[in-house]
Structure formats: C-alpha cells, structure tokens
Design brief:
Elements: H1 2-21, H2 26-36, H3 38-41, H4 65-74, H5 88-98
Helix pairs in contact: 2-5, 4-5
C-alpha cells in the first residue's frame, strides 16, 4: 500500500515537472517561428506544400513537447536540424507558439 502511494506521488510529480520544464514564451516563439519556420510551414501554420505538416490543423501537435523538441533539434525527413542554430529554450518558445495556432 505504501509503495503504491509513493509510486502514484512520484508519477504525479513527474507529470507536473514536465509541464513546467517545457513551458515557453509565446511571443518569442512567434518571432522565432516567423524567422526560421514560416518559410516552409507558412506564416499562419498553413504549409507551402502538402507534404509539410500543417500546424493550422494540428499536424504533429498531438505529440508531447519533448518529442517535438527532439524533432526540431535533430531534423526530420526534409526538415533540417536546428541544433546549434536555436537553443532548446528558443525551440520551447516555438512549440508554445505552435500550440496557439
């Protein structure tokens, strides 16, 4: 019984800390998105090509922030990696902005 209670508390703490760790600044994210992402993904999240995810209709936004961060950092298919160009904090800002589209 005690073990179960401790596991439940640890699980709740893990979920709570994940949300705080990945919170970002929406305004900064918008500026970074417009500078680096809108060329392909569109200023309003509508991509220039049907093969590119549309953030306006939620493509790929059902993933957890840490998965999106990894995809942006490392690149994905035709999308280049942004490791070294954007910090993890800047990527978190972009993710926060994407969630508003």
């Amino acid at each position: 019984m005690k073990t179960r209670l401790i596991l439940n508390l640890l699980t709740m703490l893990a979920f709570a800390s994940t949300g705080v760790a990945f919170a970002g600044d929406i305004q900064e994210g918008r500026q970074t998105y417009e500078l680096h992402c809108s060329v392909c993904h569109g200023i309003d999240g509508m991509p220039i090509d049907m093969t590119i995810p549309s953030f306006a209709n939620g493509d790929r936004l059902f993933q957890m922030d840490q998965d999106l961060l990894r995809s942006i950092r490392e690149g994905r298919e035709l999308m280049p990696a942004f490791r070294g160009l954007l910090s993890d904090d800047e990527i978190r800002d972009v993710i926060a902005y994407l969630r508003t589209l």
